[in-house]
Design goal:
alpha+beta, 2 domains, six-stranded antiparallel beta sheet, 7 helices, 50% helix, 18% strand
């Protein structure tokens, strides 16, 4: 192999390795985008799948085209690009498996106190508007009942899961819940009690004495 060929090969190795590492690092940003309500959860999942497919395909493609005489890195002729690609694949899988935790972390870090206050206020208004209409036990909250601010600070309207206002035993204060998401990740606001009673695995941010933000599964 000539000096020029070696230089081209080295540059290609650096470029491919850098690209795979960049994709794996970028995967940490998808839950942040969801937390800021820039993308929906299905889009986040699709981006993780695309990231995983890209880095793993790079490993397979590099092994398929690599010349037999090319200098190997370690372990049975694995090249530098393949080793980096495998590490990037593991990183994407790890980030994907902890994406719910990352989502909650970014919601907590990126939501200002003024937004939490307004969300709690909106929950008070939903409760005040729905409680008088309640029958024997509860009344459903539909997406039409949600204030526009929820679309900006809480979740996309299309991701609204369900909501309700329900009576509690031993108190006149009802429970109000507005839930977004899916079984793999749901989040929202819970007023009048502890959301961990309904979702034992929930991670909770207390907004005030009556209202909490939560993120859970199911």
């Amino acid at each position: 192999m000539t000096t020029t060929s070696r230089l081209v090969s080295a540059r290609g190795t650096v470029l491919a390795s850098s690209l795979m590492l960049a994709i794996s690092l970028l995967s940490a940003a998808w839950p942040y985008c969801s937390a800021r309500v820039w993308i929906a959860l299905p889009t986040e999942r699709s981006l993780y799948g695309l990231s995983l497919l890209t880095v793993f395909s790079g490993v397979l493609a590099n092994r398929a085209v690599r010349a037999p005489t090319r200098a190997s890195f370690w372990w049975r002729g694995t090249s530098v690009v393949e080793a980096v690609g495998l590490l990037a694949t593991v990183a994407v899988v790890a980030l994907w498996s902890h994406s719910n935790d990352l989502f909650f972390y970014w919601v907590k870090r990126s939501t200002p106190a003024s937004a939490w206050s307004l969300l709690a206020k909106e929950m008070n208004e939903i409760t005040a508007g729905k409680a008088p209409q309640m029958g024997a036990d509860s009344i459903r909250i539909s997406s039409r009942d949600l204030p526009g601010y929820f679309d900006q600070a809480l979740g996309k309207r299309a991701e609204f899961y369900y909501g309700f206002v329900a009576k509690q035993k031993g108190t006149l204060e009802p429970i109000t819940a507005v839930v977004y998401g899916y079984k793999s990740r749901c989040w929202g606001l819970y007023r009048g009690g502890d959301p961990r009673i309904r979702w034992p695995d929930a991670k909770v941010i207390r907004l005030n004495s009556t209202t909490s933000y939560f993120e859970a599964t199911g």
